């Protein structure tokens, strides 16, 4: 639900603040839930479907069963490379819940008349979302998290519901999408559906709330306070 780069910006914060993380595996995990085969931003079928990749029986991102994912893949497990991947995945689920609740659903309410007239109105709104991504990357060409994803040399088959090689293939789709838009014009414009400050504020708030969740779970320690760096 959140853009790929929003997930990477949040992941970047934790890479910079948790010294034991395997950054490369963590970054792969942070986008892995969005690695189903399918047409980007479509309402069509994905393989596997979001119900599986996002652990949501209803298909709604507000219903991601992140606690079940934690129990299956993180609780009591050693903090190795696989753990870093699963932690990135876990944080992705938490982020999508927050993005759905704080960005997507309020926007649907504000523009409910436009949605009623045009079922594809979300695509209009997402132009702002992704143009803000492109604007950020243009201003930060050496952005660490994106560079790690670009240089991903392969992905282990961490999860049984993805085909062999699927994660690596779809990660390349993500990096190709952003690289193909490096020369996109008209980024210094008004953003009526999501302002740059609203996106930045969301990311900072999400990092703070996720940090508290990690401390509560004992994944990080309360004395290791993290300065915002996404």
From TrEMBL:
Superkingdom, natural source: Bacteria
Location of the Phospholipase C/D domain: 6-99
Listed InterPro entries: PLPC/GPLD1
Protein name: Zinc dependent phospholipase C family protein
Organism: Candidatus Ornithomonoglobus intestinigallinarum
């Amino acid at each position: 639900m959140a853009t790929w780069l929003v997930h990477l910006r949040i992941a970047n914060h934790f890479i910079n603040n948790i010294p034991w993380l395997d950054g490369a595996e963590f970054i792969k995990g942070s986008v892995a839930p969005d690695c189903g085969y399918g047409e980007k931003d479509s309402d069509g079928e994905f393989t596997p479907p979001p119900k599986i990749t996002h652990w949501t029986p209803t298909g709604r991102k507000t219903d991601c069963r992140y606690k079940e994912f934690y129990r299956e893949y993180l609780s009591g497990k050693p903090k190795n490379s696989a753990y870093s991947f699963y932690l990135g995945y876990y944080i992705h689920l938490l982020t999508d819940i927050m993005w759905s609740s704080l960005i997507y659903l309020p926007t649907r309410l504000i523009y409910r008349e436009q949605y009623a007239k045009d079922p594809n109105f979300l695509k209009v709104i997402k132009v702002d979302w992704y143009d803000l991504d492109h604007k950020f990357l243009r201003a930060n060409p050496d952005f660490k998290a994106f560079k790690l994803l670009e240089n991903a040399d392969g992905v282990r088959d961490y999860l049984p519901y993805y085909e062999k090689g699927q994660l690596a293939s779809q990660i390349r789709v993500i990096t190709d999408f952003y690289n193909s838009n490096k020369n996109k014009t008209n980024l210094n414009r008004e953003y009526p559906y999501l302002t740059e400050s609203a996106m930045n504020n969301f990311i900072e708030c999400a990092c703070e709330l996720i940090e508290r969740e990690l401390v509560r779970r004992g994944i990080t320690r309360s004395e290791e306070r993290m300065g915002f760096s996404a």
